[in-house]
Structures
1.
Amino acid sequence: MIRFQSLFDFYIKSSIHVAFSVYALVRMTHFMFGLPYDEPMALFAFFGTIVGYNFVKYDALARAKKRMMRKELKLIALISFFSFLGVGFYFFKLQLVTQLMGVGVLILTMLYTLPFFPNRKNARNWAGVKIYIVALCWVGVTLLLPVVNAHLSLGTDFFIKCIQRFILIFNLILVFEIIDLANDDPHLKTVPQQIGVKQTKILGLLLLLPFYFLEFLKNNFVEKQLVVNLIMVVMLSLFIGFANQRRSKYYTSFWVESVPIIWWLLVVLL
């Protein structure tokens, strides 16, 4: 049991789970637009997520030479290295325009992590900005890049899906911010820090209304998608409603980050 627990923790800490969430959303984009499976795009997003998230989480620790890296961190670094090779391999299989946009997302990720300007903190520590940068990166990787790589026109349905995808990620991050409220630096000015936990939950629940009803405005309206989205609204409402600082770390790091995977599976199954 202890061995399984260690493996499970490593699976989460090494960002493999969140990478599967990104992969699921890319596959969902293919499904929604009736596109065939684009392996280079899906795996580029998967491996890129591992590299990006581990870079964000462990960059400062890796650069600090005050203590030796534990065995676990060395394994995470090894996985990140091979994922970096995977990113490079699939990057050159993408369309040129997708490559250019992918570089743009990379720059945004680096801006989020590294201080580009003298005497300024990185974007991760800019007051109130973190949630928007992360949500935009997810929308860019899981929706914009797959559509552009398939040479699809960016019509009304695409922009509606962008709004829905942004709301989904925004709400998932709100749950993280509620859980981490006690540990977050007050200068970050996260949403719960600015308006309180109760108002944050109300905001998240209100955002689920456009998330659901925007479906009716799509040109390619599919009734079954309403059922899937209703299940998603109920699930997200429960995650938001029951979020508090006493929740286990798995509440967000596993269950909340599983929401995109569940959404994709529901779309495929129904």
2.
Amino acid sequence: MRIVIANWKMNLLSKDIEAFCAACVSGYKPKAGVEAGIAAPYIYLKDVKAKLGPCGVKLYAQNAHFEAKGAFTGEISMAQLKDIGCDGVLLGHSERRHIFGETNANLVKKVKAAREHGLMPVLCIGETLEERDGGKMFDVLREQLAVLKETGAGPLVVAYEPVWAIGTGRVATVEQIREVHAFVAEELARNGAAGTPIQYGGSVTPDNFAEIIQVPHVAGGLVGGAALVPEKFLKLIEQAQA
């Protein structure tokens, strides 16, 4: 299974989303073995679901709290996401880890909560440039994947995004991607999650994705900037379907 997810982050307004969804409805052609999804800002999730539901594009949130309800001002629960029709949720994105202090301990609870509410958890992992250059890359990734020892088995997608390649225009080489995805696949098997799809993310565009998607253990992409343009997003899906 290949999965291409557009992570809109904190971008786009209603008029932009209207045009994006219209382009997807007219241009998206589903194909067996490849899923497409959009991770939209909270306030637009319901609109995106209404506009894209009929064409089969999946709906993802960009984060969520692990408690089903409670006094957590400003948070959104997995139950609420499920209630409005979400299919999955991104968890542990590097921006959540490094800017907002997301911890592995919280991610254990979030993965479990997502599964309990029927949402597909997309666990994001990745090293900084300092960690890579310091020879700590595999240790960092191993620690991030170790949360699966506590979550137990269940539905899961992993997205490997080298932090130094997110939004920088710098892309990991094919050999670097091959090396890391092979390592991640081995770690997943060691943690009881063999066969889990592993997406690649980090300045993915239609210019480099056709080559990246052919790398062993690369099962799609988690895409930022390029996925803000519907024509580019549709092209990425076509490349995954090829």
3.
Amino acid sequence: MASRIKTWLQPQQPLVILGYTSIWSGNAAWHPLVRNVLKRWLGEKRRAGSGEFNELAAPHELVLLDAGYQLEEIRYEYSQAWTLDDLLGNLYSTSFASPAVLGEKRADFEADLRTTLLDFDRNGVYEEQMTFYALLARVESK
């Protein structure tokens, strides 16, 4: 894999990988509850559209370093407070819990998620610390 990466880019062009803390990688106290509801309705394996999400064989950083890239990372921390409706809207915008993926299970999934989260915290607002990042990879200058 590392040997093929440099063939993907034109000389001197950087590679940029963008990401953020998601329900799957976050550590807010309520995240495991959401993951459990997702698994109840969609199965144990994380979904990605009509298929399953494939875990990375190695972190992006290691693959890029092995390929001879210099890395720079930009991070931005953000405190997010979700209402139940906002959280559901966010989930419905993903490849793993879109209305198309949920299909006829959508109403039952939504009712389960609402009940689960309201049992956890009746105020209906769920806070998390999100990290957004950009990983910039450049070929090392010789």
4.
Amino acid sequence: MAAWRSLVLTLFPEMFPGPLGQSLAGKALDRGLWALDILDIRDFARDKHRSVDDTPFGGGAGMVMRPDVVDAALHAAQENWAGAETSGEEAPGRRAPVLYLSPRGRLLTQSLVRELAAGPGVTLLCGRYEGVDERVLEAHDVLEVSLGDYVLSGGETAALVLMDAIVRLLPEVMGNEDSPGEESFGENEFEGLLEYPLFTRPAEWQGRKVPEVLTSGHHEKIRLWRKAQAEEITKRRRPDLWARYTKN
């Protein structure tokens, strides 16, 4: 099976792979467990100044990324994917979705991360300035994805977060295949809950002791303690998640 792949469209290609070139993600990239390709949006500008933005119709502050430039970049991305399929590097017919990192988009959740990790990859459009012309988003059926209710300077840092969340779920990337299921939002009996507290040696530190149940060796009691802790933390810190968990 072909490696999961991310194709990033950005005005700042030097920002990649950034932190994804280190640790588990970096080692997986070197091993070919996933692939990263970058397209510089400015390469598709149509004038000698390599302009990619213009003032917004209707007035307002800031600049907007031009639809003709972004459209050309997205078409190049499509050709890139098509070329990979022809060469046998990608499975035919498994189209990668085009995602635009935007605070008004669909919230990035662990379930969406798992969905994207199960596919062939993603094309990530990183916006800058005030955003991208709406028409080009509609023309390419772009899915907008948000990390949360806040605004970043551009889509690059959001793209790095999204890729990190996905890459760690890919086969052979993490040493312990059970680890993702035991974390916050894991896909097991703790699904929908925040992670329980974690402890390691020494058993006593600055007068604080590890809960006795964790050193008891009684696996069922440990499981029940961890679940109770995960429920209590979720209920206290994230009432929205707790309401969804109890409903389901």
